[in-house]
DNA sequence: GGTCAGGTACTCGGATAGAGTATGTCCGAGTGAGTAGGG
DNA sequence: CCCTACTCACTCGGACATACTCTATCCGAGTACCTGACC
């Protein structure tokens, strides 16, 4: 899986506690990652409609929806793309013992099994929201952690 | 996901109906895929212990276990590798607002959610066996399909 | 006829090139804020 | 004192290089089968 997914999810979680837009460069500084590449991931989030991008002097990125309405699946698909990992190339219709196309009314069993596993993964990802993740972060690292991060993001120093 | 996974699964399914070893080149001809690259995938299956490779004039590959004891997960992991797609790089421990390492006794919530989705996918893949797939192929394409393929694999002509 | 040695052809196995995608970087377009001037 | 127009600095956005993995290929190592000779 793309490493940018992890960055994007972390960004969404910290964005839950801020109201003003946060520039990509500041998020990169917070996470110590490549600013330009993180910007690319945030652009993908913007294209997917998960965040709003505002330009200008005090611009940046803001969540476009309440965190409870953004699922982990939304973020993963925004970065990695919505197409499933497994694509059936219809091997059964090729070669000397090919199954005639008229018999292939349903997806082949292998494709179905792969689709089922993909679906299970997507269901698991869909059941987790950004708000839920933020809640767990607070529970794990202490209440007020995200507010502290938000304060740092809003300030100008290091 | 690696395209070789699809090839490998198809090979495992057709191997359920043969007793004698089948050369990689013949499986490639059956599926109309690159012989040398398919050979590489079969080598991976052999390394994982899913198939036995026998050398010599009438050599080839045979399933090492009853098809009911080989799961789709086994094949996928043999080709794509057993390591999970998502790897947590512990972003929370980096940057100016880093969480101290002593607070990181449990995996971060994001990592946990990703692991859960991976686990769901693996469970789905584990619940499908090669024998089950072969059964569904017979049900879909007509009884005797696999035996016909087996006969073709055993013969010498095209 | 049976046994054994040798050759041969066929197999797998790992080491070796090429293509596509993920990663990382750069510069230009756009815009909101701040400022200076005028009314 | 308020309004307006301008400048400017800061932001995003897409176009451009680089590294790595997936795909595809080649040739060498090994082995079972077949053939032939010998007993």
Automatic annotation (TrEMBL), chains A, B:
Q: Give one GO molecular function term.
A: DNA-binding transcription factor activity
| Pfam families named in the record | Rrf2 (PF02082)
Task: Provide one Gene Ontology cellular component.
Answer: cytosol
Q: Which InterPro entries match?
A: TR_Rrf2-type_CS (IPR030489), Tscrpt_reg_Rrf2 (IPR000944), WH-like_DNA-bd_sf (IPR036388), WH_DNA-bd_sf (IPR036390)
Gene3D superfamilies, per database record: Winged helix-like DNA-binding domain superfamily/Winged helix DNA-binding domain
PANTHER family listed in its UniProt record? TRANSCRIPTIONAL REGULATOR-RELATED, WINGED HELIX-TURN-HELIX TRANSCRIPTIONAL REGULATOR, RRF2 FAMILY
Q: What name does the UniProt record give this protein?
A: Transcriptional regulator
């Amino acid at each position: 899986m793309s490493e940018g997914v992890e960055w994007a999810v972390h960004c969404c979680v910290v964005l839950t506690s801020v109201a003003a837009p946060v520039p990509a460069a500041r998020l990169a500084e917070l996470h110590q990652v490549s600013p330009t590449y993180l910007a690319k991931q945030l652009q993908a989030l913007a294209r997917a409609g998960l965040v709003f991008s505002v330009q200008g002097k005090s611009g940046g990125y803001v969540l476009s929806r309440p965190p409870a309405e953004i699922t982990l699946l939304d973020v993963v698909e925004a970065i990695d793309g919505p197409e499933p990992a497994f694509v059936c190339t219809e091997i059964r219709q090729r070669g000397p013992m090919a199954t005639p196309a008229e018999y292939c009314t349903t997806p082949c069993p292998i494709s179905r099994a792969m689709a089922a596993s993909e679906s299970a993964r997507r269901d698991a990802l869909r059941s987790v929201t950004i708000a839920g993740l933020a809640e767990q972060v607070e529970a794990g690292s202490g209440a007020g952690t995200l507010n502290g991060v938000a304060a740092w993001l809003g300030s100008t120093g290091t």
